[in-house]
Design a protein that fits this description.
Largest sheet: 8 strands, antiparallel
CATH architecture: 2-Layer Sandwich
Distance between the termini: 20 Å
Shape: globular
CATH class: Alpha Beta
Order of helices and strands: EEHEEEEEEHH
Radius of gyration: 15 Å
Number of strands: 8
Strand content: 35-45%
Number of helices: 3
């Protein structure tokens, strides 16, 4: 199982998430832009919208949505990110994919409008959701590699 690093420095309105996946960069990128592999809506182009829901072990569902800024590429995806449980608190999210041999380091920088917005996101138990999402991506990569 991969380890997810989450950094939220005091007084800085940003969160940095890093996780290494045992999959090639093109596959990790594909998992972020291929509508066949995503839930709900995913129009990976400049101005396109995305939305997905996540279910926790207790069956609670959480929705997230945003808009792509610029055309996504294996170098970076820039998009807005809004947790529907805390509407109106939008952050700008940049996801990068760095090759590491047969693995890929995915790094996400979330820039919030304020430290308070960032702290509110952290308080939503986002850490568990981020780790669960990473675990699901690991499962998807294993499934695709076996196919």
């Amino acid at each position: 199982m991969s380890k997810t690093g989450i950094t939220a420095e005091p007084g800085i309105p940003q969160i940095i998430i890093a996780r290494e996946f045992g999959a090639p960069r093109d596959l990790v990128y594909r998992a972020h832009v291929d509508p066949e592999l995503t839930i709900d809506q995913y129009d990976a182009r400049n101005g396109g919208i995305w939305r997905y829901t996540q279910k926790d072990p207790q069956g609670n569902q959480y929705g997230f949505h945003g808009v792509f800024h610029g055309d996504p590429s294996p170098d970076a995806i820039v998009q807005t990110f809004e947790f529907e449980g805390v509407p109106g608190h939008v952050c700008l999210q940049t996801v990068t994919f760095a090759e590491r041999g047969d693995a890929t380091l995915m790094r996400t920088v979330m820039a919030f409008q304020s430290v308070e917005d960032r702290d509110q996101m952290v308080a939503t138990d986002m850490e568990r959701g981020v780790r669960d999402s990473g675990d699901r991506l690991d499962e998807l990569f294993a499934k695709l590699a076996a196919a």
